[in-house]
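Hey, can you fold this?
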Amino acid sequence: MFSTDRYRNYPQFGEEHDQLRKLVRDWCRKDLHPNAHAWEAERLFPREVFRQAAQRNLLGIRMPESLGGLGLDWWYTVCYAEEMVNCGLAGLTMALLVQSDMATPVIHEIGDSWHHDTYLKPAIAGQAIAALGITEPDAGSDVAAIKTTARRQGDDYVVNGAKTFITNGTRADFITLAVRTGGAGHEGVSLLMFPTDAKGFRVTRKLEKMGNHCSDTAEIAFEDCRVPVRNLLGNEGEGFYYIMANFGGERLVGALTAIAGAQRILDVTTEWCKTRMAFGKNLMGFQTVRHQLVQLETEIEAGRQLCYRTVDLVVRGDAAWREIAMCKLYCGEVGNKVADRCVQLHGGMGYMDECEVSRVFRDMRLITIGGGTSEIMREILTKVCL
């Protein structure tokens, strides 16, 4: 399993962080990891997992205690995100992080007490499943190009359009939804809290993916769905800016899980190399294998240090756009490199579905795409670095 010994000398982490790590790690080992193959095959993990996460106070780590959260800082989120890799299911980890760190932080930050009571508190308590609805068939990284509309009619918005690649989309109770309330461009975008029991909403397709199989991903449609005006989140026409700010947290937890996942599978592969025999000795007896392993360890450590530096900036109030983009870019690339090399070091077994490394290889591929592609990260960096 993923070792936490390497974190003992970091001054950011103390006894309470260790307790949280142990809580998450024990849950993963006892209740989640043993079900990994079954839930992947079923293409869905049980809804009960959200409630189990809530019972361990994992869905509102940085949320105020008054809303049911823990009121802690980003270093505790780091512990949560890193230890979740012990479940061996990147899809499950992603689904929980959508709930805790992608679809709900913006509700806390710009929502009012009604939004908090109606949507945020149930999500933190694991009573409601949240989704983030931004991507459309013709608008991925280009958020300003979304076409889903919300037109004001009296005391309601009437929503029409479609979204795709929506994590938790087949069973979400509500969606933090990007809509167009105004004209073209980024100034016409708003955020709307959308309850999925609204008439006219439907899941048009559950999508089959390359990896992250246990997490549901949906294509969804809105046909004359009426939503009360009070469901508007923040100010009309400012949704683009809210979304861009929200991307920071999404990308940072994505980078953290990429590096933690890479570390876990490298640890697994290192143990494999100690016992796998070839030409009369174990793989660790070959210099080329040892050198590959320590090279990957070095690159993972560099990614971890970059993430920790970025978290330190965020905790001190810095938006850290530059560093977050670097984290997302570098950690995604390293994660994929590590997964690829670990499959190779496993040989034929690495290509077998029963071998965890093959699942990590498939799952890790999403990191350089979701939440902003590596190409978009590079473009962001050209604007702040050059």
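Oh, and this one too while you're at it.
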Amino acid sequence: MSYFEGRSGERYDRRAARLNRPLFRKICREIADAAPRDGAVLDAGTGSGHLLLELARLRPDLRLSGMDLSKDMIAIGRRHVRDASLEDRVALDVADVAALPYPDGAFDLVVSTLSMHHWDRVDRAVAEFARVLKPEAPLWIYDFRFVSARGLAAAARERFPGRPIRRTLVRALLPFPAFAGYAI
């Protein structure tokens, strides 16, 4: 995680805010359409929270949580939340996807964007997502198209038996689909 700490984290935040904006907007529109009224959404691997800020703008009724392993990225995200006066609606925590600090069944939707390629144990992350999701609530994972999803598919079949795993290619920013989305 050292790449996301200190000045590198600040540089990453500025670059990611600019480069990821089209992808985040697209994902936020999808979440805004799918999340139940007054629902709770978790952004796993939120970085500095840009996706949550956009989602808060689109859906003021949602309770939004984000977590990231990098304490510096969460500190930057908390600053963004404070600057946007969203402290009452957006909570950010330093945490590992393999050991989430949330109660069972706390969320109506879990999303992760451009984070899966950093996870040491995809199976543990998926197990934790299954635990914190309400029954039948969706898990959406977006990452670079070239990232292997074999571990994700196996873990999802085990933790979400009988539910389909849909892979879609996502166009945002670039004229070709650089990202893949997985809906479980």
